[in-house]
Amino acid sequence: VQRRMLTKNNHPLSLRRLAVLRFVEEATRDEGKRPPYSQLLSRWNEQHPAWRYKDFRGLSQAYREAFKEVVHSRFQIPNL
After folding, report:
1. In what helix (H) or strand (E) does residue 46 lie, and over which residues does it extend?
2. Positive or negative CA dihedral for 28, 30, 36, 40?
3. Residue 66 CB: number of other CB atoms within 10 A?
4. Which residues 6+ apart lie within 8 Å of 42 measured at CB?
5. pLDDT tens, 19-61?
6. What is this structure's pTM?
7. CA–CA distance, 39 with 45 (Å, rounded to integer)
8. Are the beta carbons of 21 and 63 closer than 8 angstroms?
9. Do the beta carbons of residue 54 and residue 41 sit within 8 Å?
10. Residue closest to 54 by CA, chosen among 38, 74, 70, 30
């Protein structure tokens, strides 16, 4: 059953990517729309100095990939 539920490409998201997902989603909820990544980058780097991004492209890519993994999960519930 486990093999049927977890697809071949099953791997955990890193803590950093999960934190980015939460960070962007919270900022979006608080402001009513997603703030520009350039603004998010400065806030992220201030709040997470150990996980700094050099530019907003890295932050936006981490968010998009984490969002895709969570929202479009390949997790499948088998017909039992």
Report:
1. helix 37-47
2. negative
3. 21
4. none
5. 999 999 999 999 999 999 999 999 999 999 999 999 999 999 9
6. 0.78
7. 10
8. yes
9. no
10. 38
